[in-house]
Amino acid sequence: MILVTGASGTVGGETARLLAEGGHRARLLLRDPARLPDPRPAAEVVVGDYDDPEALRAAMSGVRAALIVTADPSAPRHDAALVRAARQAGARRLVKLSALAVANPAADDLITRWQREAEETVRSSGLEYTLLRPRAFMSNTLGWAEEIRRTGTVRAWPVDAPSACVDPRDVAAVAVRALTEPGHAGCAYPLTGPRALTVRQQVAVLAHALGRPLAVEELSEGELRRRLARRWPEPLADALAEMAARRLDGGTARVDPTVEKLLGRPARDYSQWVSEHLSAFR
Ligand SMILES: NC(=O)c1ccc[n+]([C@@H]2O[C@H](COP(=O)([O-])OP(=O)(O)OC[C@H]3O[C@@H](n4cnc5c(N)ncnc54)[C@H](OP(=O)(O)O)[C@@H]3O)[C@@H](O)[C@H]2O)c1
Predict the structure, then answer these.
(1) Whose CA is nearest to atom 35 of ligand 1?
(2) Considering its fold, how many domains does the chain have in total?
(3) pLDDT tens for residues 41-95?
(4) Which parts of the sequence belong to the NAD(P)-binding domain (predicted)?
């Protein structure tokens, strides 16, 4: 049995779907059954929060391998609780969704520090582990969808600094390999897309696919920070702004061959991702 946590989220949902397609027995942990991936994959479901030890016990029971996805940088206890429950249940293998910034010594924002601590929690668990370290997800551009539909303009910062963004489906495909195959223990995988793109280039791909012109308006760093602070608690908004600023020094542009090596096919391109999510932008 394989447990997928964060199963209502981006990578967990894709992982659940790919595991079901591959005929693997899977269990999904989510806190709201109404947020099951659509279409619903063939899998068991356990409902519960990472703060609920009983739910974690039920979720981990009989599990051989687990995908660990946490999302709250103010709660490192979530990774600790999941690892504890995995050990107590006799699970053998953990696959942890981390982030590529952890490998950049210059990255010291709240989110990256939290991911480093979570990696250490997993590494010191005594269980087999694999660390997935993706660059920014292509799906983050869904955050532009409402503004594109309403105004035909993307407002962002910085707009001319490249990032080797990755399709979360590739992250999930690597997760499935690490959960189900031998040979991934102790590995930390940098996961990027096939080329680095700036915001302006991503918007050009979207405009081409939509068949209509889209404008790009560059915000100032301060404007980005204020926009983030309207949506997120201030420490998180600050961390996200720091992450955006790191694009400027070219540190996010490096394309890594790991996705292609592991999957035996090229990493998925942004235009492929766009073609499958176009309805969100129309
Ligand atoms: N986005 C990026 O560009 C990017 C890049 C690199 C790494 N990452 C890392 O990827 C991870 C997020 O993955 P994602 O984008 O696939 O997830 P996501 O779409 O943000 O969803 C988060 C998942 O975690 C669940 N969750 C959050 N808190 C929970 C709790 N207390 N108890 C139970 N479930 C809880 C959510 O459940 P609900 O549906 O109930 O909220 C949801 O299923 C983060 O660690 C992030 O740092 C993201």
Answers:
(1) 6
(2) 1
(3) 999 999 999 999 999 999 999 999 999 999 999 999 999 999 999 999 999 999 9
(4) 6-182
- Whole-number Å distance, alpha carbon 207 to ligand 1 midpoint, is 28
Residue for token pair 């009983």: 54
List the end-to-end C-alpha distance of the chain, in Å, as a whole number. 40
pLDDT one-digit tens code per residue, 157-189:
999 999 999 999 999 999 999 999 999 999 999
The CA 241 to ligand 1 mean position distance, Å, reads 19
- Asked whether residue 251 carries a pLDDT value surpassing 90, the answer given is no
Quick one: DSSP state of residue 266? P
What's the DSSP call for residue 100? G
Domain with 86 in it: 2-134+167-191+255-267
The residue type of 222 is: G
Nearest CA to ligand 1 atom 14: 10
Q: From the CB of residue 156, how many other CB atoms can be counted at a distance below 10 Å?
A: 23
Q: Is residue 150 part of a domain?
A: no
State the amino acid at position 63 in one-letter form.
V
Which domain CATH number covers 95?
3.40.50.720
Neighbours of 281 (CB within 10 A): 20
User: Ligand 1 centre from 132 Cα, in Å?
Assistant: 14
What residue's CA is closest to ligand 1, atom 23? 6
Residue 87 resides in a domain: yes
Ligand 1 atom with the shortest distance to the CA of 171: 16
Per-residue pLDDT tens over the stretch 116-136: 999 999 999 999 999 999 999
What is the average per-residue pLDDT within 264-279? 98
- Looking at residue 121, its pLDDT comes to 98
Assigned domain for 104 exists: yes
The letter for the amino acid at 23 is: G
Position in ligand 1 atom list of the atom nearest CA 136: 3
